[in-house]
Please model this.
Amino acid sequence: GEDVEQSLFLSVREGDSSVINCTYTDSSSTYLYWYKQEPGAGLQLLTYIFSNMDMKQDQRLTVLLNKKDKHLSLRIADTQTGDSAIYFCAETGQTGANNLFFGTGTRLTVIP
Amino acid sequence: ETGVTQSPTHLIKTRGQQVTLRCSSQSGHNTVSWYQQALGQGPQFIFQYYREEENGRGNFPPRFSGLQFPNYSSELNVNALELDDSALYLCASSLAPSGGDEQFFGPGTRLTVL
Model:
């Protein structure tokens, strides 16, 4: 079955870059996602990458995918206090379907 | 355009009771997925409905059931509640059940089972 793993906590200083890492097991996943969850809120899609890509950049966000190692990372440049939240990596479990399998989440704390 | 809404926001039940949670999809979306998020965990896929039919199910027992209505709104029903059912229940709607179709999440219903 699908298994997505993330480290639980990350602290960075405001203005530094944050790198959140994720490993996954299902090599058939066609899409890999990063979601953000703020306290008391639902999930907000930040970005996603198609499995045949190795990098995607979207403003302050850079996603790197190493398909051989099944490793996904999210880099946030110039991290701000508003970036403090829980970040979830997710994969689609079956080719062509969009049900998601999530990691346990990484709690990012930005220190002013 | 109205986003995904869920009701109620919070709910307290006792063990053995039954509960119904509701979700209203984003306009134009015909696919709804339900997820359970236990405290400190990532969301876990319960099931998905597409055009009123179940279109995939995660590893949840049959006492978790659902419905999707012709207007694509949806219900999640849980029978014989257990303490471990305490969680945030999230629904998400999408245009279709295809891998590239973004899921838009509602704010969730927090269920507490005593």
User: Anything to note?
Assistant: Chain B has a mean pLDDT of 93. Chain B touches chain A at residues 4, 31, 33, 35, 40-45, 48, 56, 58, 90, 92, 94, 96-108 (CB under 8 Å). The radius of gyration of chain B is 13 Å.
